[in-house]
Every structure is written in C-alpha cells, then in structure tokens.
Amino acid sequence: MRVQCRLPVLQMALTQLAFLAGLTVCAGLDQAVPLLTDDATQIAIAKRVLWIQQPGQATPKGAKVSLDLSISAAQLHEAVNAVAHGQDWSSRTATDAQPASPIGTGGRDDDATGAGLARSRHCQPPGN
Fold first, then answer.
1. Which of 1, 2, 35, 119 places its Cα 20 to 30 Å from the Cα of 10?
2. Distance CA 117, CA 114 (A)
3. Count of domains for the chain
4. 20 occurs within a structural domain
C-alpha cells in the first residue's frame, strides 16, 4: 500500500499504523496499489483509495473507503485488504473484536488469515 498525506505528521502516523497492521508500505505510483490519503489531488492517480476523513471535509467521489483517525491497526488491515480485492468495507461492519484505538496504539494483526494480505506483487519496499 501507499500512504500519501498532506501533513508530514499525519504521513508518519499513518505509515506507522500501516506497519503495525503488518502491511507493506511502498513509494511507487502503481494505480493497483491501495492508497491511504487525505489529499484529494492524489485520487485521480489511484484506483483503490482509502480516504482519511477529517472534520469539515467531504469524502471525494473516487474514494472506495472512508476512514477516520480513530481506526485501529486491525481495522486498517481489514480495510486495505477489502479495497485491494475490490470489496466494500465499513468500520461499522468490521470483524475487529477490539474497540477502535487512536493512531499509534493499535496492535499488529498477524492471524492466519490476515498476515500480508494487502501485499501486492506491484508494491516493492522503498529502495527496490
């Protein structure tokens, strides 16, 4: 997956949350790779957009999923996996048994069905 946010602190926090979720974060511009963003200008260059909803912002038309900043690592993992497979996802229907926790405090989701599901053959770790 890719993380592309307008504010560096949000970029860092969501990248860390993605790592906690066991997701591979890459820097490439492949449209097939799910994109987590709060930057509407990024939506035109991605097919699988997870939108970071902030107060006072409307969800752009190209976003497949809308998330808020209370998402847990396990929920992020589920959402990215759903978007990567062309499915809908809602935090209200997530199978995550734990309540949502603020960014940076979520646990790693390493169950037998979850580890590495969002990895893509198109997404190489930065530097490759």
1. 119
2. 6
3. 1
4. yes
